[in-house]
Amino acid sequence: MTIYCGHYESFAFSLDFFCIHYSIGQNAKEESSAQKIIVTTDKAIYTNNEQIWFSAFLFTNNAVVKDTATVCTLALYDPLAEKVILCKKFTIENNFATGNLLLPDALNSGRYTLIAYTNLLQNKVPISIKYYPVDIYSKNGQQPFITPLAIVDSLCTNEKIAIGYRIMATRQMPLPAEVKTTYNVNNGKTQKLNVDASMSGIIILNRPKPNQDPQILTTTSIFNTDTITGRIRLPLLDQDYFNNAGFYPEGGHLTAGAVNRIFGEYLKDSKATPAIA
Questions:
Q1: Which positions ≥6 away from 271 have C-beta within 8 Å?
Q2: Which of 45-59, 60-74, 227-241 tops mean pLDDT?
Q3: Mean pLDDT calculated for residue range 53-60
Q4: What CATH number does the domain located at 145-233 have?
Q5: One-letter-per-residue 3-state SS of the chain
Q6: Higher model confidence: residue 51 or residue 66?
Q7: What architecture does CATH give domain 8-137?
């Protein structure tokens, strides 16, 4: 099989492909034997208005690829909102590209993904795609506290989703006594979030339906001059979801980079249900 290069203007190609490709986890193209991309950045954690400086190294199988890549595209993708935040093209010379991306001022804190690919296409799709995680915090310096969000499985139902909120100090000092906290879904109506004496709270929301756009819960906590945000994507309502799922210590362990097998219990309507994982 021989692969030739195509011009971007010649194809009905957009970054929507990456949103689908990334979200469903089909990374076959990432491991293409025709071409591999290695991207290095100046660091792994950034804040708003910072530059992401990068270098891209291209390795091409010349026995398969009969054309030369001349353009490297780097995109910043938000997996929670399922949209591309930034996209910029860079010239490739001698299988090498370098440059920078300026992070927007209004970017929320969270883990984002850098997507790299070249202008070598096959069937209107880049022959190789590479994903790199990058963490972005919305404030410079050390924050006095953080506000992690987590799904509280014991309080969830098929129709409702429970999100746990907690204020945790990052320094050796007491927790702030008066923190004003609000929340909203997809930048909609803002509501007050009440916390108890342990600086914890619960948010109960309707589960999104499968045909809805991604639903992102955002919390905003203000203490003096510090503003801390948190985000989490709400799981979809799916009638095929199991009512309960659990794993046990004797069921095995997961080890990075190795083939693993673990055992658990899946219950639907209080009955054990077989499942393929």
A1: none
A2: 45-59
A3: 91
A4: 2.60.40.10
A5: CCECCCCHHHCCCCCHHHHHHHHCCCCCHHHCCCEEEEEEECCCEEECCCEEEEEEEEEECCCCECCCCCEEEEEEEECCCCEEEEEEEEECECCEEEEEEECCCCCCCEEEEEEEEECCEECCEECCEEEEEEEEECCCCCCCEECCEEECHHHCCCCEEEEEEECEECCCCCCCCCCEEEEEECCCCCEECCCCCCCEEEEEEECCCCCCCCCEEEEEEEECCEEEEEEEECCCCCCCCCCEEEECHHHCCCCCCCCCCCCEEEEECCEECCCCC
A6: 51
A7: Sandwich (2.60)
Q: Which of 208, 46, 174 is nearest to 112 (CA)?
A: 46
Comparing 8-137 with 145-233, is the CATH topology the same? yes
Boundaries of every domain in the chain: 8-137, 145-233
Q: Which residue has the tokens 């639907």?
A: 268
Residue type, 6: G
Task: Determine the residue type at 52.
Answer: I
Q: β-strands 264-268, 244-247: how paired?
A: antiparallel
pLDDT digits (tens, 9 = 90+) for 121-175: 877 788 888 888 888 876 545 566 778 888 888 888 878 899 999 887 766 556 6
CA dihedral 248, 251, 257, 259 (to 10 degrees): -150
Cβ(215)–Cβ(256) under 8 Å? no
Could you read off the pLDDT of 203-245 as tens digits, one per residue?
999 888 877 888 899 998 887 777 888 888 888 765 545 456 6
